[in-house]
Specification:
By secondary structure, this protein is mainly alpha-helical. It folds into three domains: about 230 residues, no CATH class; about 160 residues, no CATH class; about 120 residues, no CATH class. Helix content is about 70%, strand content about 0%. The strands form two sheets. A two-stranded parallel ribbon has the order 1-2. The protein has a two-stranded antiparallel sheet with strand order 3-4. The protein is flat. The two termini are about 55 Å apart.
Length: about 525
């Protein structure tokens, strides 16, 4: 290392920023700032240490920064969680593969290994800076310039460690002396009141966890720029466990599953794909048939994928004939799985037409196409004998699913679809479900604002209640959030509500009842301002 202090300073900055941005602060733009700050510091240290990242690392860093924007543009909980987790994993992967960019060629086992290697480095690597080894040159009579520099660094870290050890000792003695002498206690209290002594415990907690995370992040920076060992580029197609299952046994398993799936699909074609009449004759309504078994069909697809991965990893294919048979049976399996997925997608569409859209149903609607993409990718990799690239295909599917969730805007999509569905109420008998509506986040507010202008009272009244309840919430002087929690949906919401303030004040909110709940009455209908649990499954 040319400048070891750079790593500690960077670790301290990231840890301190984490405290400023996240401690008792709402989630929002702060997350994006912290991710970008960590990436910038990592690349800055690399430039100063003259360690160049690969293009794969730069690409991954840009992806990580892009997904960190999720909490800035969406407030729907699952989308926020998913994009944040992806950004954190991306940040860890950038640190683990900064020098080589081998993440593209990693197998599943390589991802797991590198994760634990990074965790281990985060707790061990900074020790070399905090407790540097003794320089043997110090024993020589003639000291070199490098030795003088080493001594200065050693003195700095000695002072730093001394202060760290002295603070808790001084604190204990100060408490005892204050208890022993009232005059000393009075003077000490005056001094500490300047620093808000009532928050002393909180300050100490924050001080020590900042130091702890600074130590951890320093280790991460060190591991990223100067890994302990040189890593050879992994071969994705190299098995990581010894195969032990024969091709005959595997063929029997795949054949049996294929026969079962084929039998199921025959029944599906007769009943499900055959139309409403065949289902009604069996004693089910169309909506009941659609509701039952959707989750099980998705589970079948996922388990089939896991079964293939397991068999592919443990099966010994000694000849070309064996390999062709395994590929053929796997391809037939996945073709049937894709048909089953389509069946599940159709069931979901029927379910949504019967009961409306919810978050879970929307997640599933987005998830199924990406699962189908992954299955098609697996079949293609099996045919070209590049099965080891499955982790890259899986990563692509996960990133695609997350990006789709961000771009679709789940809550806005739900509101739009349910409002459109309710507009057809005269023909189909559907109504706008306020229970679903009130649980949606501010992502949906622009759509609901448009619905408020609809002349149909069945659409306008629930929308007005939603907006009036939100205005009551945001008109509260205590509703303003610190800048760390800034996000675009909340800002857009505030602007739209202010623009329509005069109209919304025509819908007064009742005082809290004995249970602390507020509600609004429009026409003959009472609308609660607080969502009821369980409405978005």
């Amino acid at each position: 290392m040319k400048k070891s202090s750079l790593f500690l300073i960077a670790g301290l900055i990231v840890a301190w920023a984490m405290d400023i941005l996240f401690y008792k602060k709402p989630f929002g733009i702060a997350f994006t700032i912290w991710i970008v700050l960590a990436l910038v510091l990592l690349f800055l240290i690399g430039a100063l240490e003259k360690v160049k990242p690969t293009w794969q690392t730069i690409f991954l860093a840009l992806l990580t920064a892009a997904f960190s924007l999720g909490p800035l543009f969406r407030v729907e909980p699952f989308t926020r969680l998913l994009s944040s987790v992806i950004a954190l994993i991306g940040l860890m992967l950038v640190a683990a593969t900064y020098q080589n960019g081998y993440w593209i060629w990693f197998r599943i086992i390589d991802y797991i290994t590198q994760f634990f290697t990074l965790v281990g480095a985060s707790f061990s690597r900074a020790l070399a800076i905090l407790f540097p080894p003794k320089d043997k040159n110090e024993e020589s009579a003639e000291l070199t310039d490098q030795t003088h520099k080493h001594r200065k660094n050693a003195m700095f870290w000695s002072i730093f460690r001394g202060i760290g050890l002295a603070l808790p000792v001084i604190f204990i003695f100060a408490v005892l002396l204050a208890a022993a002498d009232p005059i000393f206690e009075n003077r000490l209290t005056q001094i500490l009141n300047f620093f808000k002594i009532e928050n002393l415990v909180e300050y100490l907690f924050r001080f020590f966890y900042i130091l702890l995370f600074a130590y951890i992040f320093t280790g991460v920076f060190l591991h990223a720029i100067y890994p302990n060992q040189h890593l050879e580029r992994p071969d994705p197609n190299k098995p990581w466990i010894k195969t032990f299952l024969g091709n005959i046994e595997t063929s029997i398993v795949l054949s049996g599953v294929n026969i079962l799936f084929f039998t199921f699909l025959l029944i599906q074609f007769r009943y499900f794909f055959g139309g409403k009449t065949n289902i009604s004759l069996s004693g089910y309504t169309y909506s009941e048939y659609a509701r039952r078994g959707f989750g099980e069909l998705i589970a079948v697809a996922v388990i089939s994928l896991l079964l293939y991965l397991a068999l592919n990893g443990i099966t010994t294919n000694n000849s070309r004939k064996h390999a062709i048979r395994f590929t053929a049976l796997s391809a037939i399996l996945f073709v049937q799985v894709l048909i089953i997925l389509y069946s599940g997608f159709q069931r979901l569409a029927l379910y949504e037409s019967a009961y409306g859209f919810s978050r879970l149903r929307t997640y599933s609607t987005v998830f199924i196409p990406w699962l189908a993409f992954l299955i098609v990718a697996v079949v293609a990799l099996e045919i070209i004998k590049k099965q080891g690239m499955f982790p890259l295909a899986l990563m692509t599917a996960i990133l695609g699913f997350t990006a789709s969730m961000i771009f679709i805007n789940v809550d806005s999509f739900i509101a739009s679809k349910n409002i459109q569905r309710a507009i057809l109420s005269d023909q189909e008998g559907y109504a706008l479900d306020y229970t679903y509506l009130i649980q949606l986040s501010n992502d949906a507010l622009p759509v609901i604002m448009d619905a408020y202008k609809n002349k149909n009272e069945a659409i306008r009244n629930p929308s007005a209640a939603f907006l009036a309840c939100r205005w009551n919430q945001y008109s509260n002087p205590n509703s303003s959030l610190p800048w760390q929690g800034f996000n675009f949906p909340d800002q857009i919401t505030r602007n739209l509500l202010r623009q329509n303030q005069a109209a919304l004040e025509n819908f007064p909110i009742s005082s809290p009842n004995e249970y602390g709940a507020k509600f609004i009455t429009i026409g003959n209908q009472q609308y609660d301002c607080y969502p009821q649990a369980g409405g978005l499954d």
